[in-house]
Specification:
Elements (H helix, E strand, L loop, with lengths): L1 H7 L9 H6 L2 E2 L5 E2 L1 E2 L6 E2 L2 E10 L2 E6 L6 H8 L10
Antiparallel strand pairs: 1-2, 3-4, 4-5, 5-6
């Protein structure tokens, strides 16, 4: 169930371009608000940098990120499973 929450935090409904993402908050399938900072070439979502934007796929648009996007509540739940000091945001 926890893995499903992590994965759902990386998916939004509809086709959201990087320009759309930079200009508004969107809600993930996991129910968390995702907000982006920056713009073309320097866009971040949560604590992850977008390293590949607007990749067209059959079922939507993909934005590759260089990390896991975790809201604070989910981060604390994951940390409770790991030995002290091993889980980094």
């Amino acid at each position: 169930a926890l893995l499903l929450q992590v994965l759902e935090n990386h998916i939004v409904r509809g086709k959201v371009s990087s320009a759309d993402l930079a200009s508004r908050q969107v809600r993930s399938l996991g129910g968390n608000e995702l907000s982006a900072q920056g713009g073309a070439g320097a866009l971040t979502v949560g604590n992850a940098q977008v390293i590949g934007a607007d990749i067209q796929a059959e079922n939507g648009i993909i934005h590759a990120v260089n990390g896991v996007i975790l809201p604070a509540e989910l981060q604390s739940r994951l940390t409770s499973f790991a030995p002290t000091g091993t889980v980094q945001p």
